[in-house]
Structures are given as structure tokens and as C-alpha cells.
């Protein structure tokens, strides 16, 4: 994995890919899927996300204030759905899905080796956690896997239906 | 335009398309592009979004607490970029881009006739507006244009580069 400049993080998340979020507590890591996220600031990159309090990850995220956002490409779609359809309460999801946790640099939550990008994050705002399960994260460090060229991300439309990145159009624009 | 059940709104925004946001005040409507948005709740649909205080729309949104989120398909890409690269401070963007404002039912902000979906929204939370320019909206009514079959949305990667919806994959999942 290679460093990705923090100024480019928004280009990963702004297009709305399904991502996975890892957390860890007491030596036990967990992973969930997430589509409810958005950029809030370019640099340092701030990200808002919704982690339902029905999710096993919610308590860990709130307590540790740390997580990793991992971005999977199309090849991982089946595993992404698998992660979303079981709970860390009852299984070790990394083992069950055959995903590889890697140590991060700034947080105890693990990176996901199979994902083409990994963002180490800390929680910086919890004002809307009680009302909306909405956390604001700051990205401390971003990793990119240079071995995965032109990864296609997937975009969830509900119940396992995903639109895959198709053609790329380039139009003249001065806006980041 | 036809009613879309509010329970299906998340399927429009969860995949992360570029959208446009309209506002209106004192008989003058404006429109901006937006990629920083996410779902917060299924039903009634709640949406969080970031509208920079550098945008002309910011003051209007904060004052009127009303807007419309309009979802454009690929065919509108050039106009979407045009909307993003000029300011309502100096031009009537609807006129300049050849977009057609239509009256909404519950808000003074207009629908956009050319967009395949339009969501009438009111602001329901402003706790994070001063700190992050982050608004939470509730969708009051959703419209869909049945004449636009299988619209392909566009996903912004920065500076006018968009990934267009490609193939659709369907995997077994019980999750909405």
C-alpha cells in the first residue's frame, strides 16, 4: 500500500461507492458495509457517515472514536454483500468472508488488504450521533494499492443491486 | 411527473449521483450542483448535505429552510457542469443553461423539468451548519419522470470527470 495525498481523498468518496468500515476494541476487529457517507471538507478531509445504532460497530465506534474506511472494487462485491448480511455480534466477519486485516498506522482499527483504498479516521464530531447516528470523521492517513489499476467501484441501489462504474466522461470544469 | 413513494427515495441518492439543488427567495430561483450528500434515514427520508457558505444558495437555504434536490441523468452532464461553473449572484442560471423550473407542491423552490427525479425538501436540523455547512433535510414529496426509462446517473471524481453508471450486478441480499 502506498500513501495517497489527503487532498485527493474526496475523489474516492464523492462518487458514492459502497465502502466498508472497520473498528476494533479489546483485540477484536469488526467490519460493516456502508453507503451512507459523504465528504464534508477537502483538506484535512472530513467525512460524515451514518452508522445505525442497530449495528454492532456503533458502540465500538462511539467508544474508541476510531475507524478505517476501506473502498472495495467490483471484484469484492460478493464479499461486500456477505459482510452486510451477518453481524459481528456472532461471527468473526474477517474470517468468515476471507478478508485480511492489516495494522493501521494511527488507529487500532485494521486496514483491509483486499481493498484498493483505506482511510484511517478519527471521530471529530458527535453532536448528531444521538439524534441521527451521524458521525463526522477526519481522515488522518490515506492508503492506496498501486497494484489495483483502474478499480471499478459499486453503487448500491438496495437489496444487493449495484450499479458498477461504467464509461468515464470528461467535461471542462474548474471545480474540484 | 409521477409520485414516487417516499420509501424508495434512498434508492436514488444512496448510489451517490451528482444532483442539483434549487432554492428560491423573493421570486428569484437559483440552482447549484452538489455531490456532498447522503441518506440519513429511510422513511420519512432524511438527507444530509453540505452547501458551502461560499455558494450563493447558502443564505437562501438557511433563510427559507426549503429546497429541491433534482437528479439529472447522463444527457444533462454538460448542463450540470455549466450550473457548477457560474454563480447565481451574477446570472439567472436556469435561463443561461436552458433548464426549466416547475412549481413544486410544498416548497417555493422549483422542480427541474429536465431531471428524472425531484425531491421537495425542508431543513429539519441546523446544528452543524455553522461548523460544517451541513444541513439535514426531510423529503416531503418525491417526483419521478416515467418518460425517462433507465436513467444513467453520473458520479463526480473532480474537475469535470464523471463515472457513468455501467452494468448492474444483482447479488442476494436481505438489506435495503
Word description of this protein:
2 copies of one chain form a homodimer. Chain A is an alpha+beta fold. In chain A, 16% of the residues lie in helices and 39% in strands. The first copy, chain A, has helices spanning 10-13, 57-64, 77-84, 93-97, 129-132, and strands spanning 2-3, 19-25, 28-34, 37-41, 46-50, 66-71, 101-102, 111-112, 117-125, 134-144, 154-156, 161-170. In chain A, the strands form 3 sheets. In chain A, strands 1, 2, 3, 4, 5, 6, 9 and 10 form an 8-stranded antiparallel β-sheet that branches. Chain A has a two-stranded antiparallel sheet with strand order 7-8. In chain A, strands 11-12 form a two-stranded antiparallel sheet. In chain A, strand 2 and strand 3 form a beta hairpin. The mean pLDDT of chain A is 97. Chains A and B meet through strand 4, strand 5, helix 3, strand 11 and strand 12 of A and strand 4, strand 5, helix 3, strand 11 and strand 12 of B.
Keyphrases for this structure?
two-stranded antiparallel ribbon; eight-stranded antiparallel sheet; alpha+beta; 12 strands; homodimer; 176 residues; 5 helices; globular
Would you tell me the overall average pLDDT of chain A? 97
> What general form of chain A does the structure show?
globular
Radius of gyration of chain A: 15 Å
Strand elements of chain A, count: 12
Give me the secondary-structure category of chain A.
Answer: alpha+beta
Distance between the termini of chain A: 25 Å
- Helical proportion of chain A? 10-25%
How many H/I helical runs of chain A? Answer: 5
Largest sheet of chain A: 8 strands, antiparallel
- Oligomeric state of the chains present here: homodimer
Strand percent estimate of chain A? 35-45%
Secondary-structure element order of chain A, N to C: EHEEEEHEHHEEEHEEE
Amino acid at each position: 500500500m502506498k500513501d495517497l495525498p489527503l487532498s485527493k481523498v474526496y475523489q474516492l468518496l464523492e462518487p458514492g461507492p459502497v465502502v466498508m468500515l472497520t473498528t476494533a476494541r479489546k483485540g477484536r476487529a469488526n467490519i460493516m458495509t456502508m453507503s451512507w457517507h459523504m465528504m464534508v471538507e477537502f483538506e484535512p478531509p472530513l467525512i460524515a457517515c451514518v452508522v445505525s445504532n442497530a449495528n454492532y460497530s456503533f458502540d465500538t465506534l462511539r467508544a474508541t472514536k476510531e475507524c478505517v474506511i476501506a473502498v472495495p472494487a467490483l471484484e469484492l462485491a460478493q464479499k461486500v454483500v456477505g459482510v452486510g448480511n451477518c453481524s459481528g455480534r456472532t461471527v468473526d466477519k474477517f474470517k468468515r468472508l476471507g478478508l485480511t486485516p492489516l495494522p493501521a498506522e494511527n488507529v487500532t482499527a485494521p486496514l483491509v488488504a483486499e481493498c484498493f483504498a483505506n482511510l484511517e479516521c478519527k471521530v471529530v464530531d458527535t453532536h448528531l450521533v444521538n439524534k441521527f447516528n451521524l458521525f463526522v470523521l477526519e481522515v488522518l492517513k490515506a492508503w492506496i494499492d498501486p497494484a489495483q489499476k483502474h478499480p471499478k467501484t459499486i453503487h448500491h441501489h438496495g437489496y444487493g443491486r449495484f450499479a458498477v462504474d461504467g464509461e468515464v466522461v470528461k467535461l471542462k470544469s474548474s471545480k474540484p
